[in-house]
Amino acid sequence: MPTHEHSFIVNHDVEVPTPGTDEVWTVGAVILNREGRAFAQKRSEDRRLFPGTWDIVGGHVEEGETLLEALAREVEEETGWRLTHVRRFLGTTTWTGDDDGGGLRHEADYLVEVDGDLDHPELEWSKHDAYDWFGPDTLPRLKENCEPGQFMIHDLIARAIEDHPGTCR
User: Fold this and answer.
1) 59 exposed, middle or buried (CB, 10 Å; 0-12, 13-18, 19+)?
2) Is 134 within 8 Å of 141 (Cβ atoms)?
3) pLDDT at residue 99 tops 80
4) Inter-residue contact 121 to 39 (CB < 8 Å)
5) For the sheet containing 54-55, what is the strand order?
6) Dist. CA 153–CA 39, nearest whole Å
7) What is the residue extent of each domain of the chain?
8) What are the Cα distances from residue 111, in Å, to 11, 41, 74, 134?
9) What's the pLDDT tens digit per position in 7-16?
10) Superfamily of domain 9-14+25-163
11) The whole model's pTM is what?
């Protein structure tokens, strides 16, 4: 597994939680373009967890990885882009998944900058079937196929856009 340590900038005030020994953690990256629009990809309908919903870039932290190493790996795997700057810790969400036997998940989300062709992400097409850049005018689309109360991605992106309009890259 390639190490991404020291290959990107982390703002000094960025919090990085320390996972407990038996905890399952995931990470998420909110990526904004120059216009302040946030990248999201639509999960394929055949995905067991949250099928047909919009999602940010991210995934499970693998054994031996730090949260930020996992973040860099997931950005590269899911988009082909390279993580360059971790700007801000957006918070931790705890939820119950029904994948991999179910159980409690802790997700640490970050506002990040990336390097790469933002117009042509290299999606994992077996897992996602669309992508788009979301701004204040298109935020309601992030609620597509979500049950009431499952608006975590919408709320996360809305907060990032509101806090950092037209800023990254």
Assistant:
1) buried
2) yes
3) no
4) yes
5) 54-55, 38-43, 128-134
6) 11
7) 9-14+25-163
8) 11, 16, 14, 14
9) 899 999 999 9
10) Nucleoside Triphosphate Pyrophosphohydrolase (3.90.79.10)
11) 0.88
